[in-house]
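Quick one before lunch.
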Amino acid sequence: MSLESVFNETWSDDHQSGVVAVVGRPNVGKSTLINAILGQKIAIATPKPQTTRRVQLGIYSTEMMQILLTDTPGLHAPRNTLGEYMMAVAEKSLKDADVILWILDVSEPPQKSDSYIAETIQAARGSAKLIFVYNKVDLAGDNPDFSAFEALIEHDDAIAISALKKQGVDALLEAVKVHIPLGPRYYPIDQVSDLNMRFITAEIVREKVIINTEKEIPHSVAVEVTEYKDREERTDIYATIHVEKESQKGIIIGKGGKMIKIIGSLARQDLEKMLDHQVFLDLHVKVLKNWRTNEQFMRRVGYTLPKEDDN
Ligand code: GDP
Ligand code: MG
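Model of the guanosine-5'-diphosphate complex:
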């Protein structure tokens, strides 16, 4: 990370800063937790798995501490270019971290892929501290038994939370703080993300598509913001939703354009809330066969592979 950001702020000598990697199977609540910590919508949280495709930096700041949160794609065996990309991102975020938060869904027993994640953490963690986060305790009954999770891998701490109900989040931050080294404030105290608005916009549109369409859609959608114009009274945004098949295009547009209208309207409402500003959002749907193995396209929409020397 670069120390070059220039801003007029001071911090005390005992200020702490560091990187916290948030990992775990798809759907365990990583995005929900990051949103709970940051108190606003940065990562997208949806009920469908594997919807996070890129390291997303959320920044949590207090007077005394700044932590940079990376939301990683689900760790799983590579299947295509997108899968390999997701793996590379996940491994890199572990290597760079001061603390790894492994989010575990305690509403169901550990899964086979949890053992795979344990191996990946073991191999890639470097000197990072590992904290188990037992999430969804609101679904786990009165006397939850975490022993099957405890046995997964040696860890430095364990905290039970409900990201959805925002329970235990403060205790978790306290546990993280213990392992964050002394360091400067890298970003202004009021900045919550360094993702640019184009990417956030694309993620919001993608979230609305996933929430509102059938099962086959999620993995086949890439959203590209083609124009983003901040004007005084309104922000004008033009975006293209790329899918792999004509049939998917039909689903997203819907009968008489009904579905695309819903998607556009929901996305616009989120954007207006976030920007506190009127938004005009224009959506197009295009078919681009096999985009998931098209590296050039993936780069263009922001799913770029992390470079080895890119610290
Ligand atoms: P991710 O794939 O790990 O980022 O998971 P998400 O944050 O997108 O969450 C997946 C689903 O689990 C969503 O429907 C969330 O609302 C739900 N969820 C997350 N945390 C909790 C929790 O503490 N309790 C309950 N009951 N549901 C949760
Ligand atoms: Mg997520």
